[in-house]
Amino acid sequence: MSGNPLLVAVDVQRLYRDFAPWALPTVGAVAHAAARLADALACPVLCTRTVFPSAHGIVDGPWRRYEERWRELADDASADPALLAPLPELANRCRTVFDKHTYSAFEDPAFERAVLGFHPDPLLITGVETDICVLATVFGAIDRNLPVWLVTDAVAGPDPRGERGTLATLARMPEQVRLLSSDDVLEALAGEAGSAS
To answer: How do residues 11-36 score in pLDDT, each as one tens digit?
Structure first.
């Protein structure tokens, strides 16, 4: 393969499978598609996991109110920290798991340093939820002038209309983000490798 692909799996966690209010029926397919890409490309994988703002010392303001809204999940995660872990399909493939208490993974300086240190080309973004954390992370990558490929069959959200709207919005920015299925990603990178040889 040519280039230097890096795969980011945003919040592909057990809570999206096991916590009823946030459970997504397609999260297993997201994990499977991301793992398949990582294996086929033999590329590094960086995973993020949603944690609650109080874990980062945020005790007031809108993020605190957000945490209070999801108190049941915060309590469940305290009782069972494995709920925050990446799904098994990705757990052993994650080079590093970064805690994330905002929507964009790029708000974590350690994550930003790690991604920029790889000089990814392309940066493959997968994960949940498409219209919130994935979208925020895509914009963070675009703002850092990274070549973003959003893997359309390796993202999921709870509302198909929101997901379609997000993809339609990103389709308006073809200079900054490519929307590709995992098969298309493999074909595109194989084609680049063939033309480089």
So the answer is: 999 999 998 889 999 999 999 999 99
